[in-house]
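Hey, resending since the last one bounced:
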Amino acid sequence: MENNHEKNWQFVFKPAYDILIPDFILRILIFVYALTHLGSKSFGDQFFVISANIFLVAITIYMARRRKLALASFLRMRLLSFKEKRDDKNEIPYQEPSIHIRTSKITDNAYLLAFFVLIPIIAGCAVFSILYCEQCNRPISGSYIPLVSLFVIIFNAVLLYANQHQFISRKMISAKLNGSKYKVSEKNELIEFLNRKLSFRKTMKLFEMNDFLIIDSQKKIEIYKNRLESLSFESVFLGALSFASFIQISSQGSFKFGNIQNAFGDFQKIIDLDKITSDTAFPLIVIGSLISSVFYITVLIKRFAILKSLEHTQLKIERAKAWNKHEETNHEVKYTDQIQIELAHANEMLERINSNLNMASIIRKMGLYFFFIIVLISAKMISLELFFILLFITLYGIFASSIMNGEMEKIANKLPRKIQFLTRSEFTSVNK
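The structure tokens again:
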């Protein structure tokens, strides 16, 4: 199969549905919102439900397309070094492969087919619910309500079906190279090649690996420094903003700190959105701002200890680099051992730094959540609709970003292989 011409790869993968889960959940919430505002006269409610069900499908397809492009980019780079006949003596010529990937039919994945049917129907029902009212005066005439609902259903269904090959997993059904289809054994060898994490490090000697070990430690230092700077910048900005909110509200003559105790005394007013008024909202915003500021200040306090540890770790790595130069010149075991001594201490300190950074990230998230609660309460003071819009956007952003960043794949890798709920990061071989 192998030749000196351009390598034209054609892959067929099983379709995936996990990227549609946030879309489906959010549409359920929008539908519930539409049912609670059945026949709403508010143009804002109508515009929100209709526009959300139109743009949401476009955003989901964009996310699926980005995942497919990322997969194609990985295959294009990884297959540069693929050779059907492994011969380490000969050099591998540079032949940029042409990658074509698609999914099998949507009927091969019952869950995906169910989402393709349910999502347009739920979208149409939500639009119909928010618009339908026999005796309401509305921007959209009652006779056009079924047409608008039908348009939303068709719009979602057509876009999903037209982009069905974007919802791709890493379960390989077939592979072709220059038109020749791989056998099952050849496909399994290819999958093993794609999943390989190490190529020759297992056969390297320790003095050859020292360069890579030092580079790994240096890279961790850079990553941790960037994380620390990001945490510090965010803490300074949002911490100051939270505390400014606290000062602004508490400095008003009409506000009394005794209102905080009164607000928390009646817990029913806090959990009931319809009963949140300025008397309960302002105390909640004040206490939320203060708590958020404390969390961000805690992150800034931890910054100094982490920065000091980074400096000590950097010193250990520089010492290892110095011993490495002696090793490259003299090739003596004593230098190799000294390098490992320095790197061992450096790795121990790097692990402690990572733990401290993770703790700082948790504290930062808690401060961010309190800050977000402040935003939601402020939105509720303006209108309940704005509150739900911001809540929907945030929930969708959290779930969607988790899928795009591969966090769901990490969870899927830890689950038993029998559980096919999420797309895994490694390639697997499946039949149609």
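The mean pLDDT is 78.

Sorry for the duplicate.
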